[in-house]
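Before going further, learn to read the protein records used in this course. Taken together, the tokens spell out the fold as the letters spell out the chain. A record is reproduced here so that you can trace the correspondence yourselves:

***
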Amino acid sequence: MIRCSAGSPARSPAKSTLELRRGNDYSILNTVSDNLTYKAERLTMEKGDSMFTAEDRIGQLTMRNLDITDTREKLFGYAQSGLLSASSATGLPQVENLENKGK
């Protein structure tokens, strides 16, 4: 039986095989259910074959950094046009720093 966040019991019609280790450490070896919404072979914390390589992860970080840069530039444009205030009370000190950086 699994407990939901609200505290009410929820029944799970799944069968799992666990490997118990020391303390609270365990591995889920097998899970069988008609209601699974994920592929168990993709979920692993062990070293081995992975869906993504290290190069994919670095590429993802690069894209995320570009997204952050684009967002900051957009906020800077809004601040310059007066649509966004750059006061420290709003929690956006980055916009004010970008204004000073461009001068």
Summary: The chain has two domains: 2-42, 54-102. The mean pLDDT is 68.
